[in-house]
Prior knowledge:
ATP binds at residues 9, 57, 85, 91, 102, 112. The protein is an alpha+beta fold. It contains eight helices and four strands; from the N terminus they run βααβααβααβαα. It has a four-stranded antiparallel beta sheet with strand order 2-3-1-4. Residues 52, 57, 60-61, 91, 109-110, 112, 115-116, 118 line the site of guanosine-5'-triphosphate.
Amino acid sequence: VDQTYIMVKPDGVQRGLVGEIISRFERKGFKLTGLKLFQCPKELAEEHYKDLKGKPFYPTLIDYITSGPVVCMVWEGVGVVASARKLIGSTNPLQAEPGTIRGDLAVQTGRNVVHGSDSPENGKREAALWFKEGELCEWTPAQAPWLME
Ligand code: GTP
Ligand code: MG
């Protein structure tokens, strides 16, 4: 089953949007298997965003992500990676559709409140990067038979 790494970025935490953002994934029906508040060290931010190294905004991106605590999450479910990207909306919040997290709650690309993995492979890679073995929880939500036939 697919896994995605979702992270409330420091602006989302500072703005008090943690509950709102978690709620959107929870209400959709995905399964939360990992959750923590965490001050990201620079080395981890660089590893997470290594594909963007060399971009003009890369140094400010690393400063942004390490500027305060983030909320790290892993969500599981069939099709969760692409669906979470839809719930999050376009990278530039001014172009994100109303109803999406960025469309409803943000205005700037450099302050776009949330991260979501962009492929199932990166979902697994990022879950393993941000969480230690034993921090993720395998469980069966009581509502499971009411979500999936
Ligand atoms: P993530 O879910 O955070 O990975 O966003 P994304 O997949 O929609 O975008 P991408 O992976 O291309 O970029 C990662 C993050 O870098 C974005 O979410 C922004 O926070 C930041 N970023 C991307 N492009 C720009 C830019 O042009 N300017 C600034 N300031 N930040 C950018
Ligand atoms: Mg990305």
